[in-house]
Amino acid sequence: MSQYWSGRFAREGMIWGREPSPSAEWAKKKFQEAGLSSVLVPGAGYGRNSKVFSAAFTTYGIELSTEALELAAAWDPDTIFIAGSALEPQLNTQIDAVYCYDVLHLFLEEERKQLIAASLAQLRTGGLLYFTSFSDEDRNNGCGRRLEQGTYEYKPGKYAHFFTEADLRSHFSGTEILQTGSFPEKLESEQGGIHEYILRYIVARKIN
Ligand SMILES: C[S@@+](CC[C@H](N)C(=O)[O-])C[C@H]1O[C@@H](n2cnc3c(N)ncnc32)[C@H](O)[C@@H]1O
């Protein structure tokens, strides 16, 4: 996994451009309304979305790819980036909120559970989680070799999990689920390529 992402960041730089996902602005507003002051961004990439949060909150990003971290240090100098895996807790402090964009669907079931457990371990009780991931309504769902239920190698060497509403909710059982939904996301690369995905999101509160 890390080789795949490092290769892409080395070749393509800011793969999805400089504009953040509208979901980051939306989550920022939710976190501000809740009076929160610190945010963790697991799988932060080159800081495209963490930059939205670092303008308003103490922000930490966890990222595995050295190439992404080099870009992130320049693009989002206000976020504290930690080199390491988001599948394990990396902070020795508890934070108020987690924003995790399009990372959960990259893993098989056991690792998806680890990502959520590690995120919850770093979140204080009462803190908020906002996650996005591929929807089962996305056109790539069901394409290619099936690896697990809902998980497909939709491009050679690249797989993803496609979430139904019930599946996403069941991943976050043990939290108080506040809101779920789906939205189309348009990503424009710096080279001018456009990719469109259907994403699901979930907002949840850590209850214990
Ligand atoms: C689809 S990209 C999303 C990047 C970022 N969230 C954004 O919105 O721009 C997935 C990111 O997760 C990172 N990643 C993959 N596995 C990881 C892991 N175990 N721990 C931390 N980061 C990881 C990749 O290097 C890549 O930057």
Automatic annotation (TrEMBL):
**CDD domains registered for this protein in UniProt:** AdoMet_MTases
Q: Which Pfam families match?
A: Methyltransf_11 (PF08241)
Q: Which domain of life is it from?
A: Bacteria
Name the UniProt record assigns to this protein: Methyltransferase type 11 domain-containing protein
Q: Which residues form the Methyltransferase type domain?
A: 42-131
Q: InterPro entries from the xrefs?
A: Methyltransf_11 (IPR013216), SAM-dependent_MTases_sf (IPR029063)
Q: Which organism is it from?
A: Paenibacillus auburnensis
